[in-house]
Each structure stands twice: as C-alpha cells, then as structure tokens.
Amino acid sequence: MLQDIRLIAFDLDGTLVDSLPDLAAALNQALLDNQLPGASYEQASHWVGNGADVLVARGLSQSMTVDPNIDPALQAKVRADFDAAYGKSNHSLTACFAGVVETLTLLKTLGFKLAVVTNKPSHFVPEVLAKAKISHLFEQVLGGDFLPQRKPDPAPLNWLLNHYQLKPEQMLMVGDSKNDILAAQAAGCASVGLTYGYNHGVNIADSQPNWVFDDFSALLDIFKVTESE
Fold first, then answer.
1. Of 71, 88, 105, which closes a domain?
2. Would you indicate the residue range of the signal peptide (predicted)?
C-alpha cells in the first residue's frame, strides 16, 4: 500500500538528469578516434540504458543488437577512450530534468529515504550528482558495478531492501526504461515509468509500471502532496 512506502529508489540517466548530450558526444569521439563510424545523438539515445560496456558494443555494432564477432581488444580500447572522453566532459551538458530538485527536496523533507540505483559506472555517479547539486538528497547510491548484477536484475533493489530491513511493498522504483520496471517487478515493489527518458525508442507503458508520468513532479500525485507543502 502507498502508505507503507518508506524508500524511493531512482534511476539516474534519463530519470533525474539528462546526460545524453555528454554520453553521445563521448561515444562519438571514442569511435572516431579509432577510425570507426561515429554515432549520432539519435542513435545514442536508443543505445543508452544498459551500462557503458553495452553502449560501446552497440556503437561498434552500429545497432541495438550487439555483433557477437566484435574484437574484444577493440572493444576494450574504445571503452577506455569513451571513459576518457566522458571524464573530460566534466558533465558540462548534463542537467536535471524539470522539477527534479524541487520534488526530491520535498520528498526528503516528508521523511522518505531516497536512493539512486543506476547502471552507470560507479566512478562517474558522484560527479554527476555533484554537478546536478543533488548529492545531499540521497542516503544510498548504487552504481552499475556496485554488485555483480545490474538492472534489470533485481539484485540492487534487493540489496536496498535488505540494508534497510524493508519489505518490497515499502519501496518504490522510479525510472525511465524497461530495465527499471523489470527490476522493480522482480523485486516485488511498485514502479513509476517516466516517458521522457531513454527507453530504446519503446513506450515505457509497454513494460506495465504501476504509474506512467510525463513529468517528474507528477510523482508527488502518488502521495497526494503539493510542492507548496
């Protein structure tokens, strides 16, 4: 039941922040630096969401479907170049989506525990949160290599439930991709799907989250609160 919710877990890229401009630019640069076909912003928008390794593999494949014959040494080289380019970006093109800061601040004030669960490589996550000036709002931050498993595996959500000694019905997962919704369903908790993020060009409603919202601040409607409270 909604009145039982104590913890809200959020995806990062495509949910809290629009990081696609920096990710797309870094991927394109890494591919071009290796004399390979580059990646457009539109292509990258469909390829993100499963972690940096998969993003790079899709860039090398020039497709959502990863080519199984990719040279591992080349993939490792492009991944290293991607990390370098992304790190140098200083996340200058990344910003919070509308309503994120205000909504998170209110939810924290109301007593909810807030956490980030992302497939993004862990070492980049603190930088992005700091750049967005929302680091202080989260009690736990789980990056993509925090555990061996990542979304859509429920392991990160199960870790949070165990850490806080909560039942699945006491946690809500908020994300923009099917990986977030599938992880929530596998963990037994409710989920919110946001339509504005990165879901490989597929309607987030197809994954059947409990709620579908077009903007982040609509999350408050679940708890019947307003931004003036």
1. 88
2. none
